[in-house]
Design a protein that fits this description.
It is an enzyme of class 2 (transferase). The chain is an alpha/beta fold and 497 residues long. The chain has helices spanning 35-52, 67-74, 99-109, 111-124, 141-147, 161-176, 211-222, 239-246, 271-281, 301-314, 352-359, 371-376, 389-397, 411-422, 435-447, 452-470, 475-488; strands at 5-6, 26-30, 55-60, 80-84, 129-135, 152-157, 228-231, 255-258, 288-292, 317-322, 362-366, 380-385, 402-404, 425-427. The chain is built from 17 helices and 14 strands. The radius of gyration is 22 Å and the shape is globular. Bound molecules: uridine-5'-diphosphate (UDP).
Length: 497
């Protein structure tokens, strides 16, 4: 590999003919920074390998070579190898540039290196390179795939059909909405979608003067260059947009395939993981509220303190992944490296950790917990989540009802869709995030009080629908089979165009 740093041999065998040569298609996949992007893309790669005999190369950016990411990549099966793009210079970007801007710039500036990598891959995989898949901030990389003559070019959208609908409508909304989205007098109504109040719309769209707004409009337009868009969602959780996006489009937008929920369920365990799981083993069934804000989310100190006191006040058991607060920077400060920089426990109310440890009512862990194993555990009965889409899907796969506490990205609109739409979560009221409100919402979900009962029933229904879709012949399995068939047959946007 001339242009990237390989983390393993590219194109490892998944499926061989009698001579030991690899058959099956090879897929190159570009993951923009963030474990929330990498994890579902890797799951897609694993599914393509196990169900369709494919091999895959996951391509990552130099800016995200964290220990967490390295450990994750090392845990992938031999059919899924990885390599890193060389670093690009981003020093001209202003300090405090939005994450979406950083990711988009890094991707656009990596197109020449990516083109060389794809040309290399074409050679080293003996003509098996059938498709290129980029995730949501990687739309510019479709140009690299085109330049390298990769026949099929797809977008993998790791979030949901609501967010995709918004992205696909962005070029026209950019032309028609003159005010800031947060100032819209009415909720935004998009085809099939739950109406989203202006302030809850995708965070990078909330300030039109910020370059990240322009980038999002750019990506929304660029998605139309793809042959297909694969979405990590399923029809039952958002039936409205699923119905619309599954129909053939008059406006030539790419075909949309809901192929989810793809979740990461089998990570390796370390000592810190064992601490959480052993603690859960000692708790009664469905008695614990798991509290976590994704791979990088953190709260401002004041909210962190109210949450601590609200959890205590709720009288419910809890397991909380605590990060140092976000006050000195953006709420997503930990994004590029999930390890908390400071001691997060130092910001909790005085005596809190000692009290909850002494009574055994709570466990607080710094920075990271084995989330899917926690959600799968019989003792877990609720999930207070930032509504990152992977977290939502994991919760639904394991049938855990949610309390929504969104922070950034598309999390606020996810919270609207989950609470006002399908009814799988209760949202802590935005205007009054005090300890009493927090305690009341936690109790409703854990005890099935008030609206909590309906949320629990809905989540059980969605858990069943998700499992059915992934079975052979289910909607998600069939959608992915259709995508792969498109990769291995000719037609569509042809090579070297
Ligand atoms: N995650 C985890 N342990 C943690 C925090 C996060 O395993 O302590 C995983 C979680 O299971 C999910 C991903 O990291 O797969 C977070 O993705 P999500 O889309 O929920 O949020 P983001 O990190 O993108 O904000």
């Amino acid at each position: 590999m001339e242009n990237g740093t390989s983390n393993g041999s590219t194109g490892g065998a998944a499926c061989c003919n009698g001579n030991g040569a690899v058959r099956g298609p090879h897929v190159a996949m570009l993951a923009t920074p963030g474990m929330g992007h990498l994890i579902p893309l890797a799951e897609l790669a694993k599914r393509l390998a196990s169900r369709h005999g494919a091999t895959a190369t996951l391509i990552t950016f130099a800016s995200t070579a964290s220990a967490t990411q390295r450990a994750f990549l090392a845990s992938l099966p031999p059919a899924v190898t990885s390599l890193s793009l060389p670093p690009v210079d981003l020093s001209d970007l202003p300090r405090g540039a939005a994450i979406e801007t950083l990711m988009s710039e890094e991707c656009a500036r990596s197109v020449p290196a990516l083109t060389s990598i794809l040309l290399d891959l074409k050679r080293t995989t003996g003509g098996r390179l059938a498709a290129f898949v980029a995730d949501l901030f990687g739309a510019d990389s479709l140009d690299a795939a085109r330049a390298a003559g990769v026949r099929r070019r797809c977008i993998f959208f790791p979030t949901n059909l609501h967010a995709l609908t918004l992205m696909l409508h962005l070029p026209e909304l950019d032309a028609s909405v003159s005010c800031e989205f947060r100032d819209l007098p009415e909720p935004l109504r998009l085809p099939g979608c739950v109406p989203i109040p202006g302030p809850d719309i995708l965070m990078p769209l909330q300030d039109k003067a910020n370059p990240c707004y322009r980038w999002m409009v750019h990506h929304g337009g660029k998605y139309r260059d793809a042959d297909a868009i694969l979405v990590n969602s399923f029809d039952a959780v958002e039936p409205g947009p699923a119905k619309i996006l599954r129909q053939p489009a008059a406006d030539h937008r790419p075909v949309v395939y809901p192929i989810g929920p793809l979740i990461h369920a089998d990570g390796r365990e370390d000592d810190k993981d064992a601490l959480c799981l052993e603690w859960l083993d000692r708790q009664p069934a469905r008695s614990v509220m798991f509290v976590s804000f994704g791979s990088g989310g953190a709260l401002p100190t004041e909210e962190m303190r109210e949450l601590a006191l609200g959890l205590e006040l709720s009288g419910q058991r809890f397991l909380w992944v605590v990060r140092s607060p976000s006050d000195e920077g953006a709420v997503n400060d930990n994004y590029y490296d999930a390890e908390s920089k400071k001691d997060p426990f130092a910001y909790l109310p005085e005596g809190f950790v000692d009290r909850v440890t002494a009574t055994g009512v709570g466990l607080v862990v710094p920075s990271w917990a084995p989330q899917t194993k926690v959600l799968a555990h019989a003792a877990t009965g609720g999930f207070l989540t930032h509504c990152g889409w992977n977290s939502v899907l994991e919760s639904l796969v394991y049938g855990v009802p949610m309390v929504a506490w969104p922070l950034f990205a598309e999390q606020r609109q996810n919270a609207v869709m989950l609470s006002d739409g399908v009814g799988a979560a209760l949202r802590v009221p935005e205007s009054s995030k005090g300890r009493e409100e927090i305690a009341a919402t936690v109790r409703e979900v854990m005890q099935g009080e008030g609206k909590g009962a309906a949320v629990r029933a809905k989540v059980a229904e969605l858990q069943k629908a998700a499992a059915e879709g992934l079975r052979d012949g289910g909607a998600a399995a069939t959608a992915l089979a259709e995508v792969v068939e498109g990769w291995t047959t000719t037609g569509g946007q042809e090579e070297e165009d």
